[in-house]
Amino acid sequence: MIKRYGIEGSEGTGGQALPFAKAVAADGWLYVSGQTPMVDGEIIDGGIVAQSTQAIQNCLDIMTEAGFGKEDIVHMKVFLTDARYFQSFNKVFKSFFAAHPPARVCCVADLVVDCMVEVDITCFNPKFKS
Length: 130
What we know:
By secondary structure, the protein is an alpha+beta fold. The protein has two helices and eight strands. The chain has helices at residues 48-66, 86-97; strands at residues 2-5, 23-26, 29-35, 38-39, 42-43, 73-80, 103-108, 117-124. The strands form two sheets. Strands 1-2-3-8-6-7 form a six-stranded mixed beta sheet, with helices on one face. Strands 4-5 form a two-stranded antiparallel ribbon. Helix 1 runs parallel beside helix 2. It is globular. The chain starts with a strand and ends in a 6-residue tail after the last strand. The relative contact order is 0.24. InterPro entries: RutC-like_sf (IPR035959), YjgF/YER057c/UK114 (IPR006175).
């Protein structure tokens, strides 16, 4: 069975409706769409530390809504707009995941939203297997 989260009422910058699910669960897996440092449809002010913290927290909030926890995170993808943000992002990442980090890829890319970072996550929890 496939369950989609956040289809109705999801808004991006400027209040536009987002054309994708915030997350999709299937057979114990949860795929959380890329999250930017957005609150109430607007990118937060602040540097890479504040924006990284918010982007990761947005993923965690969606996971919690779906019944998953940090211990269920298998993999994270990170997109930074500048390689110079890498060390600061790592400090934020470590503050969330400490001694039990997920696997991860980090790359530099232009983002379609005017922010410094975007992250997505993949989770697995066998209690949700069909």
